[in-house]
Amino acid sequence: MTLQEDALELHKKLRGKLEVKVKEPVTKDNLKLIYTPGVAEPCIQIAKDKSKVWEYTGKWNSVAVISDGSSILGLGNIGPLAGLPVMEGKAVLFKELGGIDAIPIVLDTQDTEEIIKTIKNISPSFGGINLEDIAAPRCFEVESRLQDIGIPVFHDDQHGTEIVVTAALLNACKALGKNFADLTVVISGAGAAGMSITKMLTCVGFENNVCSSVKNLILCDSKGIVHKDRKDLDEKKKEMAGLTNKANKKGGLKDALQGADVFIGVSKPNLLTKEMIKSMNKNPIIFAMANPVPEIMPAEATEAGAAIVGTGRSDFPNQINNSLAFPGVFRGALDARASKITTGMRMAAVRALSSFVKNPDKNSILPNALDKESVKNIAAAVRKAAEEDGVSQI
After folding, report:
1. Contact 307/283 with Cβ under 8 angstroms?
2. How far apart are CA 143 and CA 90, in angstroms?
3. What is the arithmetic mean of pLDDT over 117-145?
4. Do domains 3-151 and 156-394 have the same CATH topology?
5. Mean of the per-residue pLDDT values for the chain?
6. SS3 222
7. How far is the C-alpha of 265 from the C-alpha of 272, rounded, in Å?
């Protein structure tokens, strides 16, 4: 059977990857405590002091995984129902890796105002909100306008991706003896993930815990290189043009990659060719992360001269996937009872993820996605950063 057939068989067998379980078996003796009349007492206490909700309910350990179905994996705008299996899968990883109770929620609207209003209205039930697979530019406004609701709101496609990619690139440099700051990086895909990676790499990186940044970065969208002279750029892409492409290079992806050290793909399947890789500098780094089919398959990239290849998939070495970040980030944020996730907390996650791999090599630049010790490491770093940044409410 093919991977696709195996996946369908498993999903059909499970009919949902999650279930609800009670923590305390219900008996005749404790029913009066679990429900009426005893349940009234925690209600009264919370009404007097809202902070008690963290002590008397599951809010302290719960996250809503929310999508409008507009940008599911690499499949595009396939709608909320078709996106539900992804949200369920994300919730499984929250529980398995971070011990977090996550609830998949898909919204039957792609209207920005409705999405924001809905999330605000349901937020009292949760300790955090994980936004997932919401298309750009809508995702930027949704995420930014929810930062004041008193619990962490984290758009995984933006910030989860930037954390994992930055950590992977730092360790790829260590494995190959390259200088992070000297890299020429080409990013294919100017959506939520591509723009966030761009900001992270051009603003700050970490090398031996010393702040540095990539000095030469080129961002490409579906129409080619993003440059200052293009008349079709929206406000977000104009911002990217100001951060990148200092030489104002023009053309397509093929032109951008000539003499480059790194390709980071968050775009479309089969977009990168062997010839493009051969035009890059010696021992290039290829992160082809389009899902489920990458921009180029690892074997082809290696044949073309790539020194290190990573994808978003778990069936190849060097999985560069958000699952390496979000369980630990939210575990740390929830443990700190953080009101939001700060830049400092995201940077702490980068350092913790990168440093967890003591001796990275070409086939092992990041921990295994199921490594719970890495999750604990990230959680501890994020919690500490939340306290240092003054957003911990404990």
Report:
1. yes
2. 18
3. 96
4. yes
5. 94
6. coil
7. 9
Q: Is 16 exposed, middle or buried (0-12, 13-18, 19+ CB in 10 A)?
A: exposed
- Catalytic residue set: 35, 90
Percentage of the chain with pLDDT > 70?
98
Give the angle subtended at the CA of 147 by the CAs of 98 and 56, to the nearest 5°: 50
Report d(CA 159, CA 161) in Å as an integer: 5
Rounded Cα distance between 171 and 325, Å, is 15
Token pair recorded at residue 155: 């758009």
| β-pair partners for 225 | 220
Q: Which fold has domain 156-394?
A: Rossmann fold (3.40.50)
The residues that bridge with 392 in the sheet, in sequence order, are 338
Using alpha carbons only, give the angle 293, 259, 231 rounded to the nearest 5 degrees: 75
Say which range, 103-107, 111-115, 326-330, 343-347, has the weakest mean pLDDT.
343-347
Cα 239–chain centre separation: 21
Residues 6+ apart with CB under 8 A from 112: 138, 141, 142
The dihedrals phi and psi of 308, each to the nearest 5 degrees, come to -135, 130
Query: Which residue is associated with the tokens 């021992």?
Result: 283
Would you kindly state where each structural domain of the chain is located, as residue ranges? 3-151, 156-394
Segment 255-261 mean pLDDT? 97
Residues 6+ apart with CB under 8 A from 94: 63, 65, 100, 101, 102, 130, 326, 327, 330
pLDDT at 208: 47
Identify the CA nearest to 302 among candidates 286, 282, 291, 326.
286
* pTM, full prediction: 0.92
d(CA 193, CA 289): 10
Q: What is the pLDDT of residues 153-177, one digit of tens each?
A: 999 999 999 999 999 999 999 999 9
- Region 205-225: what's the mean pLDDT? 74
The domain made up of 3-151 has a fold known as Rossmann fold (3.40.50)
